[in-house]
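During the no-cost extension, the postdoctoral fellow (Dr. R.K.) reprocessed legacy sequence entries with the updated structure-token encoder. One reprocessed record is reproduced below for audit purposes.
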Amino acid sequence: MTTDISTYRYNHTMYRIKDPKASIKFYTEALGMKLLEEHHSEESKFSLYFLGYEDPASKGLVRLGRQGLLELTHNHGTENDADFAYNTGNGDVGGYGHIAITVDDLQAACARFDSLSVKFIKRPEEGRMKHIAFVSDPDGYRVEILENPMLRK
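Re-encoded structure tokens follow.
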């Protein structure tokens, strides 16, 4: 049996989330992703939400044919527990890190995030690295924001 590693592709990262409404709103409204697919298992008490960006290369592709997706996994009932929180891997011990999103204009994106009351971990003017920002999703996962001038129209 053989496999061709040149066909391997990065498909998705999975985050466990407390409240799907808050998380989907953040990723679709603040970061501009599209909710591409969802699955619900009432018997097993969980739901999966797949989000990503639409671009000409991914138009019409099924989920397994796409790259760079975000899977949000919700275990039913966590949204009703005020004390419940997932470990994001970024506490005192650290370990995980973040995902990164590229934008056409970092300053304009940050102003837009401010208007949407997005929580900042690091603004571009803070610290030595002036070319990046970090925001937090509703569960505390970090999202790095990078400017890519090639995205400007």
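Helices lie at 20-30, 106-115. The chain has a mean pLDDT of 93. The remaining legacy entries will be reprocessed before the final report is submitted.
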